[in-house]
């Protein structure tokens, strides 16, 4: 039962920790249900004399406590559920504590827990305090030595840094001692113990040092780690070339675990990954998985400089490491896989997750100013919008000044825990520019709406462009400032010839008019090229202009964007009861022409074929009616499928792989296009198309094709669909990662049978709410990726989600909290739905024994 209202933590309350922990010695006696942790901290006072030593500690059974070898008596310290406070301590001393913990009972998967019979840890953000008493805050950096002792059946004993010593002990036990020479905050601590297979390699750094690379996985799975290892080597090389960053230890390890709350974790020298983001073989991983593995391996590796060598002063600065590291991994992926396609995918993800967040009550600044649980702020805003801010900085300053600023940051702050202010100051100094107004991007929530109008004066050959911005209020921020917004603009002629190259126009203040001379003919304006800022753009362009861009914009992002804009307009018109049939035919025809362009990359064409998602469309109208959107989108899909049927079938045949699987971008692009064709053909399910889809599914050698076929069969429904689902389950029921996909594809069932199917799946023998991957595949898959069925008029979808939140909150609050967001948008929906959503949120909020995590989000969602 909650007894008091939890108090928020505020940025403005930041105070440095009044002690320094020079060294931290940890000794683990591992046993699944009773692990002993002895910690010896070398402490020195840095703050005012007389200040008490307060350490975090939760769910720890204290066994002994001593200062400089002298046991403390019970009246010398105070202990509650969250803290250990020793009122009087010397100025320099050694504190030794011993605690007992129960990893096998840890189903929250934070701190030390068991997964697949192995010990593993997750400490970011505040998990370390469930392992031992410690100042668990990112600005306390310490040098760690870790001794691990366990039964020899826990074959590998791993921690951060370098292996110093290892050996056998009596009674079938063994030990290992690790030392990490780099001072680090507690959230980067890691420990793994258990039976694992290892895939090894090495990397020679730019200064000629050899680094041993080891990837540890479940026994028998080593071959599945080859792609991740290859991605790691490419990341290491790329970071040297692109940013001059070299790896600093002689050993780099990655471990895959099956039960993990998020994607992966950048622990110093010992990254821990969700196995879904590490293991890949053609039959068990899709191209999207390969792509994600490549980018997440890079992301965690890049954290070694942006996060580990330079970390955050406090958790309000989370974007300092996350936004910057996402920017770095996106740049890496762009170099590996092609800039335009990568940019389109990144923007799709930004819109789907961050724009939705910004549009609802959970909107928050990239650097928030208060929180209840920091875990709730590992959001798309902090990660993805954080990355967009860095990208804008680069656009505004230019590549050279940007690099100079980043070099200065690495030089000045290496070894520190610092702030966003200190980061931006480096760029201001290196470029000589005043970035004061730019800082508002970190502090202001909400997506700016930019509008563009133009006037062309043929006689003067002059074009004037007016840009205006406005950001709607968000909760807690009623008044918004104007932000500096870089808008990249180029011009085309009406026949598609390029008229004028891209130029960055910086919109500062509410409105700006630029006048361009020497524009010889009435142009088509291509604005916000490459999505130069995270804003929504409306323009006074006619749809004829959008068709010019769709056919010919040399900026491929905007070419794609023009098609999306046209489709969005057509779907929304239909959803509003005013279909534009002529426009729809014209669109289908233009799409057909784009598909025939021999110069265009198949991966790009696949993106052209995907209509804006239902979620994306729901953001464009208020109030949103998911059923109307679903129907209208389906109608446009059907029209395209009918209009382009032969062409889609022809392309589907032509993109057939020629034997050997390769995960490279070109091969993946061909598969993406094949599967995009199959997806559209399912919207016109006549016998030939159904046969083609069934054939596609049955002949699939790679999982990408199998999943593409299965998903299309769900759209078709009926007997072919059920047969395929059963066959897929029979084939893969012993492969957890593949089985996750069997659950998630059914969660996205577009038919009105979806909720029944999902409910039945929660009773399935293979469903396991304790495993975050399995749970999210089904529940998140339904709530986030199946809007039409989640928003069922009866409210049954909402009830299902609320029930799941409450069930999982009992043991894994972090995973439960992530499910609140789909209900958070209740104000944007038609009142009949919005009311039902709100009621479920209220039910969640009122539930007894709710975690702080869920309480914070449910409360904010209702504000
Ligand atoms: N730092 C990790 C990463 O992005 C994620 C840690 C997630 N932790 C959390 N409490 N949500 O690479
Ligand atoms: Zn990260």
TrEMBL record:
Start and end residues of each Peptidase M1 alanyl aminopeptidase C-terminal domain: 544-863
Domain Peptidase M1 alanyl aminopeptidase Ig-like fold: 446-539
Alphabetical list of Pfam families matching this protein: DUF3458, DUF3458_C, Peptidase_M1, Peptidase_M1_N
Superkingdom of origin: Bacteria
Reaction catalyzed: Release of an N-terminal amino acid, Xaa-|-Yaa- from a peptide, amide or arylamide. Xaa is preferably Ala, but may be most amino acids including Pro (slow action). When a terminal hydrophobic residue is followed by a prolyl residue, the two may be released as an intact Xaa-Pro dipeptide
Gene Ontology biological-process annotations: proteolysis
EC code(s) of this entry: 3.4.11.2
Cofactors named for this entry: Zn(2+)
UniProt KW keywords: Aminopeptidase, Hydrolase, Metal-binding, Metalloprotease, Protease, Zinc
Domain Aminopeptidase N-like N-terminal: 35-188
One annotated GO molecular function: metallopeptidase activity
Keyword Zinc: yes
Stretches assigned to the Peptidase M1 membrane alanine aminopeptidase domain: 227-440
Biological function: Aminopeptidase N is involved in the degradation of intracellular peptides generated by protein breakdown during normal growth as well as in response to nutrient starvation.
PANTHER family xref list: PUROMYCIN-SENSITIVE AMINOPEPTIDASE (PTHR46322)
Similarity field: Belongs to the peptidase M1 family.
Protein name: Aminopeptidase N
Protein species of origin: Caulobacter zeae
């Amino acid at each position: 039962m909650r007894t008091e209202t939890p108090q928020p933590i505020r940025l403005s309350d930041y105070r440095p920790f009044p002690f320094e922990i020079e060294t931290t010695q940890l000794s683990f006696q591992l046993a699944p249900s009773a692990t002993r942790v002895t910690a010896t901290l070398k402490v020195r006072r840095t703050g005012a004399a007389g200040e008490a030593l307060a350490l975090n500690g939760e769910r720890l059974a204290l066994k002994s406590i001593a200062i400089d070898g002298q046991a403390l008596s019970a009246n010398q310290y105070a202990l509650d559920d969250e803290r250990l406070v020793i009122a009087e301590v010397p100025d320099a001393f050694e504190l030794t504590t011993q605690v007992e913990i129960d990893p096998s009972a840890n189903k929250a998967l934070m701190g030390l827990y068991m997964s697949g019979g192995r010990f593993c840890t997750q400490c970011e953000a505040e998990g370390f305090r469930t392992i031992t008493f410690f100042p668990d805050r990112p600005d306390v950096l310490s040098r760690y030595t870790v001794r691990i002792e366990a039964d020899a059946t826990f074959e590998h004993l791993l921690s951060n840094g370098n292996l110093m010593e290892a050996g056998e002990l009596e009674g079938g036990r063994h030990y290992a001692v690790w030392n990490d020479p780099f001072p680090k905050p507690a959230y980067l601590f890691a420990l793994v113990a258990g039976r694992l297979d290892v895939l090894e390699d090495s990397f020679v750094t730019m200064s000629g040092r050899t680094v041993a690379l080891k990837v540890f996985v479940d026994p028998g799975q080593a071959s599945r780690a080859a792609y991740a290892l290859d991605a790691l080597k490419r990341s290491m090389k790329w970071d040297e070339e692109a940013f001059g960053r070299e790896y600093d230890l002689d050993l780099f390890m990655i471990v895959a675990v099956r039960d993990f709350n998020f994607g992966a974790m950048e622990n110093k020298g010992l990254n821990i990954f969700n196995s879904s983001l590490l293991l890949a073989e053609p039959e068990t991983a899709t191209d999207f998985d390969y792509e994600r593995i490549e980018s997440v391996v890079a992301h965690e590796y890049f954290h070694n400089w942006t996060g580990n060598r330079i970390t955050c002063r406090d958790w309000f600065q989370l974007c300092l490491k996350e936004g910057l590291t996402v920017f770095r991994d996106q740049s890496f992926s762009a170099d590996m896989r092609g800039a335009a396609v990568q940019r389109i995918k990144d923007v799709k993800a930004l819109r789907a997750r961050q724009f939705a967040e910004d549009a609802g009550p959970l909107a928050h600044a990239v650097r928030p100013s208060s929180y209840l649980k920091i875990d709730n702020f590992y959001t798309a805003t902090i990660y993805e919008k954080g990355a967009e801010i860095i990208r804008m900085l680069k656009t505004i300053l230019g590549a050279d000044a940007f690099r100079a600023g980043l070099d200065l940051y690495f030089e000045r702050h290496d070894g520190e825990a610092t702030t966003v202010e200190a980061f931006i100051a480096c760029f201001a100094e290196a470029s000589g520019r005043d970035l004061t107004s730019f800082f508002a991007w970190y502090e202001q929530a909400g997506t700016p709406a930019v509008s563009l109008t133009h006037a062309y004066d043929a006689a003067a050959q002059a074009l004037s462009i007016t840009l205006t911005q406005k950001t709607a209020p968000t909760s807690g921020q009623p008044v918004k400032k104007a932000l500096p917004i870089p808008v990249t603009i180029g011009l085309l002629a009406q026949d598609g010839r390029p008229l004028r190259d891209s130029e960055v126009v910086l919109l500062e203040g509410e409105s700006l008019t630029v006048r361009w001379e020497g524009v010889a003919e009435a142009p088509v304006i291509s604005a916000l090229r490459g999505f130069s800022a995270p804003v929504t753009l409306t323009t006074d362009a006619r749809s004829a202009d959008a068709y010019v861009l769709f056919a010919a914009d040399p900026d491929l992002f905007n070419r794609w964007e023009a098609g999306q804009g046209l489709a969005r307009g057509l779907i929304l018109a239909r959803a509003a009861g005013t279909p534009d049939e002529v426009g729809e035919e014209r669109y289908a025809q233009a799409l057909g022409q784009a598909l025939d362009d021999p110069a265009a990359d198949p991966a790009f064409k696949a993106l052209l074929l995907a209509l804006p998602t239902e979620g994306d469309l729901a953001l464009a109208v208020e109030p949103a009616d998911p059923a109307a959107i679903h129907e209208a989108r389906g109608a446009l899909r059907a029209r395209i499928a009918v209009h382009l049927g032969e062409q889609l079938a022809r392309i589907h045949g032509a993109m057939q792989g020629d034997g050997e699987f390769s995960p490279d971008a070109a091969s993946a692009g061909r598969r993406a296009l094949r599967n995009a064709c199959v997806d559209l053909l399912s919207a016109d399910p006549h016998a030939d198309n159904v046969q083609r889809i069934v054939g596609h599914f049955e002949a699939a050698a790679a999982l990408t094709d199998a999943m593409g076929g299965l998903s299309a069969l769900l759209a078709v429904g009926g007997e072919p669909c059920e047969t395929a689902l059963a066959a897929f389950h029979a084939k893969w029921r012993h492969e957890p990662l593949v089985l996750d996909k069997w659950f998630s594809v059914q969660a996205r069932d577009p038919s009105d049978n979806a909720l029944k199917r999902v409910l039945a799946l929660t009773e399935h023998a293979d469903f396991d709410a304790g495993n975050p991957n399995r749970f999210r595949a089904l529940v998140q898959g339904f709530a986030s990726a199946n809007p039409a069925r989640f928003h069922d008029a009866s409210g049954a979808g909402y009830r299902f989600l609320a029930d799941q939140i409450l069930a999982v909150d009992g043991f894994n609050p972090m995973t439960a909290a992530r499910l609140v967001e789909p209900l958070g948008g209740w104000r944007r929906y038609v009142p009949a739905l919005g009311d039902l959503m709100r009621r479920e949120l209220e039910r969640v909020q009122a539930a007894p024994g709710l975690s702080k995590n869920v309480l914070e989000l449910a409360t904010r969602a209702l504000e």
